[in-house]
Amino acid sequence: MIAVTAPTSKIGRQVLERLLAAGETVRVVVRDPDRLPTAVRERCETVVGSHRDPAVIGPALRGVDALFWLMPPDLTAPDPVTAYRDASRPGAEAVATHGVGHVVGVSALGRGTPLAHRAGHVTGSLAMDDLFAATSHYRALANPTFMDNTLRAAGALHDTATLTSTTAPDHRLPLVATRDIADAAAHLLLDRSWSGFAETPLLGPEDLSGNDMAAVLSDVLADLLGRPVRYTQTDPELAGRAMLDHGASPGMARAMADMATAKNEGLDEGVTRTPATTTPTTYRDWCTENLRPVIAALGPARDARQETA
């Protein structure tokens, strides 16, 4: 039996799909089962509630051999350590109580760097990893920024052909597609021949700067936008303060700014890319398969409409 938390999240949904395709018996912990496709619900055991809740996660892990753990950030938490480590404590305690042999968690790059203690969300994620590493065989999927985050910019790309982030325009950093994270997680959950604690870095096939990403987007979306994509950098402090408008606590807004600053200072650059750390999906392929249909569904962009008028 494999338990899956956050099965309606972008990564959790894909992990669940892969485990079911492999014929595994799966139990999901989910707040709203109706968000799962009917065909998926019919093939899973379902425990309704939050995996932050001891009364939910305790019974959910009874009889479980392996656990996929993903802790979504609680923007209302006072700080990232509370949001990740402390919120995960009931899960770690249930793992120990029920003897869950293997846990795979979604985490971040940065361990061992001098920036790790002041990297906001990353600092909280690494503290979460330490918690599980003390209770079970544990693999932390150490991720850089997700390619999938570009979807948040779909409206701005469509309307203004602009991509905005906190990274310096020419600073190249690794990126990873969530589908490759899900592949790595499913592989570890299905083949549990590993032991102890280790990180599994997932670096993507190449480092890209904001300008590099804009060049890829310009090519992939050329016929839809009718003009090249321009990259602009925003200040990490401004990005952090913007989180307040989305309901974040001051501590979690601060965490976002701190993480962005740490990435600019080299947080994600402490792991060497090797065949073992390289995932297959390129940014170009991801944009073509995932972003382009979203932009196309928004209709002709202004410049594209002018050209066809």
How many DSSP E strands?
12
Strand content: 15-25%
Instruction: Please describe the biggest sheet, giving its number of strands, its sense, and whether it closes into a barrel.
Output: 7 strands, parallel
Return the CATH class of the domain at 2-147 and 175-201. Alpha Beta
Major β-sheet strand ordering? 3-2-1-4-5-6-10
Q: Shape from CA axes?
A: globular
> How big is the Rg?
20 Å
What order do the helices and strands come in, and which of them pair?
Elements: E1 2-5, H1 10-21, E2 26-30, H2 38-41, E3 45-48, H3 54-60, E4 66-69, H4 80-98, E5 102-108, H5 121-133, E6 137-143, E7 145-146, H6 154-160, E8 162-165, E9 173-176, H7 178-190, E10 197-201, E11 207-208, H8 210-220, H9 222-225, E12 230-233, H10 236-242, H11 250-264, H12 283-297, H13 302-308
Parallel strand pairs: 1-2, 1-4, 2-3, 4-5, 5-6, 6-10, 7-9, 8-12
Antiparallel strand pairs: 9-11
Helix pairs in contact: 1-7, 3-4, 4-5, 8-12, 10-11
Describe the structure.
The chain has 13 helices and 12 strands. The chain has 309 residues and is α/β, with parallel strands linked by helices. It has a 7-stranded parallel β-sheet with strand order 3-2-1-4-5-6-10, sandwiched between helices. Strands 7-9-11 form a 3-stranded mixed β-sheet. Strand 1, helix 1 and strand 2 (26-30) form a beta-alpha-beta unit. Helix 4 (80-98) packs parallel to helix 5 (121-133). It is globular, with a radius of gyration of 20 Å. 42% of the residues are buried. Mean pLDDT is 95; it is low at 305-309.
